[in-house]
């Protein structure tokens, strides 16, 4: 046998082995088992607490069409991205079109692992990259609040994504690159207040999803954490939240930041942009004093990163 023939045969064997490995990787893709760690205090999973978390987590604003605000959580709001257009699904308590038939395990699996009750991978436009860090108690509180709301009998719109980004099996590979599942673990080098602020910002409110640059693949550039994005969500600027004195919040006082988060007004008197105003209206304006102070503590300790393309003075 000639050398060329041997090389060709080895190449065929190599390709066959790679194909088998690829198929095996996709085949071994069963949905995760969920073991719920229930909060000891029922108040932590109450509908009242869930309503607050529902707003802070952005569920109401993302899953409600701006022109149909009476149909909250019915879905339909579009999100334009380089990969195509996503449409937020119906997450109301409707059994047929929403999540009314979901178990607690189904709900936690979605937020913790980015999986549907059938085990399908959710596209990361659903920010489970952040939600995975929430506690079981907070997840269940949100589900309790959703189930206490009226159902919305409206089918979800199918996404309009470009090939190959419309292939859900590809999300498994995306997760290998950009997704680390698991609840938030406290940093022992930081105070309890800072850790509470980090949990609010990084898990529930998922601030980094909008205020951090992304790779072309859609994953967050962690080295640019909270440094702002010039052309962010729907083309709006998401400003630099780090402590950079020139382009971030380094020159802002606690009172300046608190005023914006509670009123929706910048220090120059202008109203924040539409997306940020929803964050304020539904979430940060309802923070308890301790939680607001914790969030301020976290923001005031973000390492400075210079980003003149998304200055805090002009953003929001």
Report on this structure.
With 316 residues, the chain is mainly alpha-helical. The chain has helices at residues 3-27, 47-56, 59-62, 104-113, 128-131, 136-148, 169-178, 192-204, 208-211, 254-263, 274-282, 289-299, and strands at residues 78-81, 84-87, 160-161. A three-stranded antiparallel sheet has the order 1-2-3, with no helix packed on it. A hairpin with a 2-residue loop joins strand 1 and strand 2. Residues 4-28 have low confidence and may be disordered.
Strand residue percentage:
under 5%
Major pleated sheet:
3 strands, antiparallel
Give a count of the beta strands, DSSP E runs of length 2 or more: 3
Rough outline? globular
Order of helices and strands: HHHEEHHHEHHHHHH
Indicate how many domains the architecture comprises: 3
On the 0-100 scale, what is the average pLDDT? 86
The helix count comes to 12
- Please give the share of residues in helix: 25-40%
Given the helix and strand composition, which structural class is it? Answer: mainly alpha
Low-confidence stretches: 4-28
């Amino acid at each position: 046998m000639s050398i060329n023939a041997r090389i060709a045969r080895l190449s065929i064997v190599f390709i066959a082995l790679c194909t088998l490995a690829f198929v095996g990787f996709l085949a071994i893709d069963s949905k995760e088992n969920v073991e719920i760690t229930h909060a000891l205090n029922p108040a932590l999973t109450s509908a009242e607490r869930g309503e607050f978390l529902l707003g802070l987590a952005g569920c109401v604003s993302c899953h409600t069409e701006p022109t149909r605000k009476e149909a909250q959580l019915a879905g339909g709001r579009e999100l334009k991205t380089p990969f195509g257009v996503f449409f937020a699904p119906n997450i109301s308590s409707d059994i047929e079109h929403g999540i009314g038939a979901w178990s607690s395990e189904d709900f936690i699996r979605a937020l913790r692992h980015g999986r549907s009750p059938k085990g399908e991978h959710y596209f990361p436009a659903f920010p489970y990259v952040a939600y995975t860090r929430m506690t079981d108690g907070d997840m269940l509180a949100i589900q309790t609040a959703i189930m206490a709301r009226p159902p919305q009998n409206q089918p979800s719109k199918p996404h309009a994504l470009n090939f190959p980004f419309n292939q859900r099996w590809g999300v498994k590979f995306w997760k290998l690159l950009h997704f680390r599942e698991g609840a938030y673990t406290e940093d022992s080098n930081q105070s309890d207040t800072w850790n509470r602020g980090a949990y609010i910002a990084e898990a529930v409110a998922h601030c980094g999803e909008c205020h951090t640059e992304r790779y072309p693949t859609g994953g967050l550039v962690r080295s640019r954490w909270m440094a702002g994005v010039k052309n962010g969500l729907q083309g709006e600027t998401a400003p630099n939240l780090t402590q950079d004195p020139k382009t971030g919040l380094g020159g802002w006082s606690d009172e300046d930041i608190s005023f914006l988060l509670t009123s929706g007004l910048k220090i120059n008197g202008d109203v924040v942009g539409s997306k940020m105003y929803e964050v304020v209206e539904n979430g940060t304006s309802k923070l308890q004093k301790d939680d607001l102070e914790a969030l301020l503590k976290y923001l005031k300790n973000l390492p400075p990163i210079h980003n003149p393309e998304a200055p805090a003075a002009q953003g929001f």
